Amino acid sequence: MIRQLAAELRLAWVSLLLPIVIVLVAVLAVLNVANSAQAVRDDFTLLQHTKSEYAKNGMDFAADLRRPEAVTTTAGEQTVNNLARFDYDNLATAIHDIAPSSSPAETLKYFGFLVFPVVFFLIGLWMSTTQRRYSTEKITLVRAGPARAVAGRQLAVVGSAAIITIATLLADVLSRTVARASLASEIRLGEFPPLTPPKPDAPLAQWAVILLIAVFFGAGGVAVGSIAGVFAIPALVFLAWDFILPIVAQNDPRNWFTVLGHAVFNYSTSFELVQPIPLPTLAAALFAAGCSVVLVAVGYVGIRIRNPLAH
């Protein structure tokens, strides 16, 4: 099994699949941090404008900072009744989020739901179809057997997910270190501490959700590739489903993970995950975990359907 896992990872590396994905997610991480840094600048400028408007209209800015935000939402429209506190809290949150210490949570809550599902599915699909495309799958089935071949691919997807996640985190931490130093030369960041303590993170729960995403979408890619035997059409269908079609059903897998995302991550105005269709968190976790098990099993069934040597 270890030999098969190593072979699948080696193939992903020498074919440049992994290096290309690593470079891609690193670039996206840098761009994401750059957007976050710009958000700090924009929030700072907006707060200064709000302070000047308060002074112009003879209002007590400091007094409003001591009061709650007083934000109300009616029919989808948001009304801010305490603009001073609202703008200050946005800036304080943006400054907190740009710190390198915030990197794990900030990286995972963005990449885990926008980038990783696509990347992990396509890697699983690629691993399940590339040997068939180059007519080498029969050799693998003879040497390793169908069960070991599929297990090696599934484990290789998880291993690739770990490598990609680590690369993303490294790029993000380095970018946040540079961005915060640059911001500190422009803005006195220490003058804007949070007026209310930030909600505590739940790192174990966050990592558990990301692992579930890797298993679910990676196993889904392997399963679809085992049955379809081709890469392009399933990849296009998945991209259309994930990026174009809206979530309209409670039991849409995307809704399960959106529910889990809101349960374990704290989102702010800089990046807000779409609101899910209401579903208990435990139910979403059980549905996602159960479906992951089914997708893993389908990978073994699919290879037996597609290839007579697997019987």
Secondary-structure map:
Layout: H1 2-14, H2 17-56, H3 61-65, E1 71-74, E2 77-80, H4 83-98, H5 103-114, H6 116-133, H7 137-144, H8 146-184, H9 203-228, H10 232-243, H11 253-264, H12 281-306
Antiparallel strand pairs: 1-2
Number of strands: 2
Q: What share of the residues lie within helices?
A: over 70%
State which percent range the strand residues make up: under 5%
Q: What structural category do the secondary elements indicate? A: mainly alpha
| Assembly level | single chain
Q: In angstroms, what is the radius of gyration? A: 23 Å
Ranges with pLDDT <50 over ≥5 residues?
Answer: none
Count of discrete alpha- or pi-helical segments spanning 4 or more residues: 12
* SSE arrangement, N to C: HHHEEHHHHHHHHH
Q: Provide the spatial order of strands within the biggest beta sheet.
A: 1-2
Distance between the termini: 19 Å
Anisotropy-based shape: elongated
Mean pLDDT: 88
Main beta sheet strand tally, sense and closure:
2 strands, antiparallel
